[in-house]
Amino acid sequence: MGAGLFSVVGILLLPGLALLAQDWHLLQGLSALTTGLLLLFWGFPAVFPESPCWLLATGQPARARRILWHFAKASSVDPEDSREEESSLAKELDVLCEGCPQPRHHSVLELRHTHVTWKNALILGFSSLISGGIRASFLHSLVPSDPSFYWPYFLVAGLEAAATIFLLLTVDLWGRRSVLLLSTLILGLASLLLLAGAQYLPSWTVLFLSVLGLLASQAVSALSSLFSAEVFPTVIRGAGLGLVLGAGFLGQAAAPLTKMHGRHGFFLQHVVFTSFALLALLCILLLPESRGRALPQSLQDADRLHRSPLLRGCPHQDLLPLLPASLPGAGTQLVQEG
User: Fold this and answer.
1) Which of 97, 131, 165, 281 reaches 20 to 30 Å from 159, CA-CA?
2) pLDDT (tens digit, 0 to 9) for every residue of the chain, 338 residues total?
3) Which of 278, 279, 281, 287 is nearest to 119 (CA)?
4) Rounded distance between C-alpha atoms, residue 284 and residue 153, angstroms
């Protein structure tokens, strides 16, 4: 969520930077230079270290121990002279390092051998694809003619910030799956109403539905990324998150269809993504709820994340007794008759 807010800040600052540069060649060079500075982190692990959790999950305890010790020294904590819990962690890491295990690297292709995780990946990628692809339809409904560049640009950035704040306030309260289901429902209904009655609805209603659909699409896109980071196991979390993000960008690549000759391209794209959004409602019900659960470390742990009841208080099994307690002799009578 924090990365999403920083992305919004970058989007809002980009027009000002373009105004100062006055030349797209210079702007492109500044962007490439800024991105190239991130490569400096590659040579300085102390500045941007590897995840100790991932190192432990892939059988690299020695590197994990060095990074954890670096964190401890940076926090002015002596790992050799600490509390009992921390010293037990140090002993456990020392035992793991003595075995000299070989690193166990995993590929995202191993999802083929899972029973549940590949379905979760498919559903989250499908949701991200829909949210990225249907955004162009809402923008086209919002500004059917050729508009000025600035106000749709800033509107999309503002809605992305609003969607991120909405998720910050709701996902821990209502749960990831419930909020994703609600956002997809709003997305599908707004798209369906625009598809069915855009020519007959008042202009303010079309404007409201387009803004609501854009907000819901931004929420679905951000929540799909957050959800995938909690559903994929540690050993392939980065690759799984990349697949979901890539599906969203693939959906955005369908935006030029709205510029095809006439309205045939826009109408076809709108119909397809509206149908997909309604189908995604059923698929999201199959996802597990990751709120309050420990992050899965291995593929086996991820396969144990089964679907939970959507509403709180729903019993997992029927706890009613077979016979009421007021009839103590009923059970004996049944046994005798049997």
Assistant:
1) 281
2) 888 888 889 888 888 888 888 888 888 888 888 888 877 777 676 777 888 888 888 888 888 888 888 887 777 776 666 565 556 666 666 666 666 667 888 888 888 888 889 999 999 999 999 999 888 888 887 775 555 667 788 888 899 999 999 999 999 999 899 999 999 999 999 998 988 877 788 888 888 999 999 999 999 999 999 999 999 999 999 999 999 999 999 988 877 776 665 555 567 778 888 899 999 999 999 899 888 888 898 888 888 887 766 555 444 443 334 344 444 444 444 334 44
3) 287
4) 30
Do 140 and 257 touch, CB atoms closer than 8 A? no
Q: What is the CA radius of gyration of the chain?
A: 26
pTM score, two decimals?
Answer: 0.80
Helices and strands, counts by H and E, the chain: 14, 0
Reference 123, options 312, 334, 309, 280; nearest CA is 280
15: left (phi over 0), alpha (psi -120 to 50) or beta: alpha
Dump the DSSP string for 237-268: HHHHHHHHHHHHHHHHTTGGGGGSSTTHHHHH
CA 187 – CA 102 distance, rounded (Å): 47
Question: Rounded to whole angstroms, how far apart are CA atoms 291 and 24?
Answer: 44
Question: Rounded to an integer, what distance in angstroms lies between the CA atom of residue 331 and that of residue 323?
Answer: 8
